[in-house]
Amino acid sequence: MQKQLQQITANMLLEENYHTLEKALLALYFHKNCTTKSLAYMTDLPIPIVSAMKKEFSKQGWGKHSLTKKGQLAISQYFQLSDANANLYFQLTTDDTFRTEWIAQNISELSTIYDARPTADVAIDQAKCTVDTALKRALLALDYTMLLNKRILCLGDDDFISIALAFLLKKIAPHSATKIVVLDIDRRVLSTISNIAKDYELPIKADYYNVQEPLPKTYAHQFDCVYTDTPYTLIGAQLFLSRAINALKPEAMRHVFFSYAKRSYQKQRELQQSLQAMGFVINSIKYDINTYEGAQILGATSQFIVLQTTEQMISHIPNQRKFTRPIYTGEVERKSVVYQCIHCKHSLTVGADNQYTTITQLQSRGCPSCKNKKFLQIKRTVQKMQDQHALGHHILLELHDCDVALLNDLQKIKTIMCQAAHKAKATIVTENFHHFSPYGVSGVVIIQESHLTIHTWPEYGYAAIDVFTCNSKLALQEAVQYITEQFNAGNATQHYVYRGK
């Protein structure tokens, strides 16, 4: 059936990929009857496209506003929906009040299982989410058509999202062909999940994996979606998301359900720039899902970002060899806290390079003087590792609607670029420019502090210019402004990139 859906996608020239057709077919299967307008709402497609899609379904003999027996059978077989709870699917995907009540009703059933989770290892930024958070995250796989007949990866799973997903799956479609894989560095987590999966007959496979190592070929390009709650550092998030890209099937409209600590606007901007550079589209950011147990560093909450893949995905960090830079908060920020025993007033320091690295360890062993297990925090210090300063500052300048004659004049272009270097207060070492036949100029001005380059397309009125320096004190913006004015650009945009950071 997948080939038929792919063919329909091609026939319709549908940009959204065949996964949108899957969503429409599931809606027709579980909702019994869908008007064009209601189906457009559920699939986020324009009404004319939904009308064309229904006609394609009808050509296959599957039905139009409701499914034929042939359509019901085809969809049931494709998604493995025998004994599926159609009423539960319908209510969970259409009724927010029911959804909230369903989560509340099922927390107690899962709580016993979740109580078996190992204690959080703060050294690797673990912070256990609440049971209702796990269920909310799992329900998003249902919303994005990533639950039924899919391969799901949980990249790090101290939150036991794999258990919540399998739990939801058994409630809705107990015979679904969905497979869930957990990759984690914590063998305690893997062992506990494996035992639970065995006891409750859940479709979960747990395997050891250190994300700083390349993703094993066994798991490359195998998954429809990835769940990951990454370290609280930007480089940690970039590494986990890079591995997620390696694990996802190389098709558009796959999803990454990504939890990340709230950060300053500047840090948020850097994260979003990374997401864009990797090829992700941010589908939504949710602030009412993630709640953690005793995660002071997060303020007990974090943001939940739904990412969608495109056809141009690029891993920020290559998958060829081991990644050696620090990725966890404790490696980047060395925290020490002075605690005082409330009974005997004995004080001791908890943190890296001390006898107790976490308050949990201290509480489990008790005060070394009187064995009391209650302590009062007296002082907290955080020593950040020296951030690596950017080795280079790079402005990519896009000039449109320029003076066409000027774009083909080698001498004038050379003069402008050399003068721009002087405007930046740079020291010119050499320059080289070339005129192409019939038109177009490329050139470079080598400066002691790096370079300026230009490539022109007179036929399009366009010039691509790079201004790059390893000296942050140069007046780059003055150079950029001068170049823009000299080329009389009608439309100019620039992208600022920190290199080597």
Key terms:
alpha+beta, 7-stranded mixed β-sheet, 6-stranded antiparallel β-sheet
Helix content: 25-40%
Largest sheet: 7 strands, mixed
Structural class: alpha+beta
Question: What is the oligomeric state here?
Answer: single chain
Q: What strand order characterises the main sheet?
A: 3-2-1-4-5-7-6
**Proportion of beta-strand residues:** 15-25%
The general outline is: flat
Q: How many strands in all?
A: 16
Gyration radius over CA: 28 Å
- Terminal CA distance reads 47 Å
Pick out the low-confidence regions.
none
Give a verbal description of the structure.
There is one protein chain. The protein has 501 residues and is an alpha+beta fold. 37% of the residues lie in helices and 24% in strands. The chain has helices spanning 2-12, 19-31, 36-43, 47-59, 69-79, 86-94, 96-114, 131-143, 161-172, 187-200, 234-247, 265-278, 329-332, 359-365, 410-423, 476-486, and strands at 151-155, 179-184, 204-208, 225-229, 255-260, 281-291, 301-308, 333-341, 347-351, 375-384, 392-400, 428-435, 441-447, 450-457, 462-469, 491-499. The strands form three sheets. It has a seven-stranded mixed sheet with strand order 3-2-1-4-5-7-6, sandwiched between helices. The radius of gyration is 28 Å and the shape is flat. The model has no long low-confidence stretch (mean pLDDT 89).
List strands and helices in order, with pairings:
Blueprint: H1 2-12, H2 19-31, H3 36-43, H4 47-59, H5 69-79, H6 86-94, H7 96-114, H8 131-143, E1 151-155, H9 161-172, E2 179-184, H10 187-200, E3 204-208, E4 225-229, H11 234-247, E5 255-260, H12 265-278, E6 281-291, E7 301-308, H13 329-332, E8 333-341, E9 347-351, H14 359-365, E10 375-384, E11 392-400, H15 410-423, E12 428-435, E13 441-447, E14 450-457, E15 462-469, H16 476-486, E16 491-499
Parallel strand pairs: 1-2, 1-4, 2-3, 4-5
Antiparallel strand pairs: 5-7, 6-7, 8-9, 8-10, 11-15, 11-16, 12-13, 13-14, 14-15
